[in-house]
Amino acid sequence: MDDALLTVSHLDVFYKRGRESFQAVRDVSFEVQDGETFGLIGGSGCGKSTILLVLSGLDGHWRGEIVLDGVVRKDGQRASAGHSTQLQMVFQDPYGSLHPRHTVDRTLSEPMRVRGLEHVEQRVLEVLEHVGLDSRFRFRYPHQLSGGQRQRVAIARALVLQPKLLLLDEPTSALDASVQAEILNLLMDLKKQLGTTYLFVSHDLGVIGHLCDRVAVMQQGSLVETLAPENLVELRGTHPYTIELFQNSQYA
């Protein structure tokens, strides 16, 4: 489609296990439209998080083509600095993804200083406000924050460079149920305020169905079906694996 912000074409991802090569992702193609929330679901090890690592530039063992906002990468090519600014990632574990010896202020300001951006202090305060944290949190360390507060900081770090695409890798699964709801509501509010496009990976069908405009189902490294929102609400798929997935209590 002409208004696709991200296009992934014939993506293959490989890993080595000793002398053997293992293919984690097989010939996956999809598009994410500008302003859309696109979900990836599937069982553990199906390749959905691997796709996010490739997109973010953290995994170079791939072939295919990735086009983000008109910029093309092919066959293991690393993302340029400008390209990576357009795309940021929020990880599953909010504590593990934050440097334990860096204050919130350093975590948020360092990416901007590295890129030579101006008005750093103003932007730090602005992005903290976006995620519901006031200036009192600015000079705290990760161990001084709750799990939900740490994930808010991780989201703020992803937003500070004003990316067009946010990769969300199970961003609520490590949190308590009540905090999960808070973070999901925050993500929905941020989408309305900032117009950011989301690529959302989760094992929780309820979360995906609540947030996503379209959802791709993955099985053993392959994309088997793409679903519209009404299919999610009614737990209706056409591929045998999708039907089995919906019948599984984890997704029901």
State the main characteristics.
Rossmann fold; single chain; four-stranded antiparallel β-sheet; alpha/beta
At CATH's second level, what is the architecture? 3-Layer(aba) Sandwich
Read across the widest sheet, the strand sequence of neighbours is 6-7-8-3-9-10
The number of helices is 9
What percent of residues adopt helix (DSSP H or I)?
A: 25-40%
The geometry reads as globular
List the secondary-structure elements in sequence, H or E.
EEEHEEHEHHHEHEHEEHH
Task: Give the DSSP E fraction (strand runs of 2 or more residues).
Answer: 25-35%
* Unreliable sequence segments: none
Specify Rg, calculated over alpha carbons.
18 Å
The assigned structural class equals alpha/beta
Examine the coordinates and then state which fold CATH places here, giving the name of the CATH topology: Rossmann fold
Query: Span between N and C termini?
Result: 32 Å
CATH superfamily: P-loop containing nucleotide triphosphate hydrolases
Domains, number? 1
In short:
The chain has helices spanning 48-56, 81-85, 104-114, 120-130, 147-159, 177-194, 205-211, 229-233, 240-247; strands at residues 4-17, 20-33, 37-42, 62-68, 71-74, 87-90, 165-169, 197-201, 214-219, 222-227. It is an alpha/beta fold. The radius of gyration is 18 Å and the shape is globular.
Give an overview in words.
The chain is of the alpha/beta class and 252 residues long. It has a single domain (4-99, 163-247), classed as Rossmann fold, CATH 3.40.50.300. Helices cover 35% and strands 28% of the residues. The protein is built from nine helices and ten strands. It has helices at 48-56, 81-85, 104-114, 120-130, 147-159, 177-194, 205-211, 229-233, 240-247, and strands at 4-17, 20-33, 37-42, 62-68, 71-74, 87-90, 165-169, 197-201, 214-219, 222-227. Strands 6-7-8-3-9-10 form a six-stranded mixed sheet, sandwiched between helices. The protein is globular. The two termini are 32 Å apart. The mean pLDDT is 89.
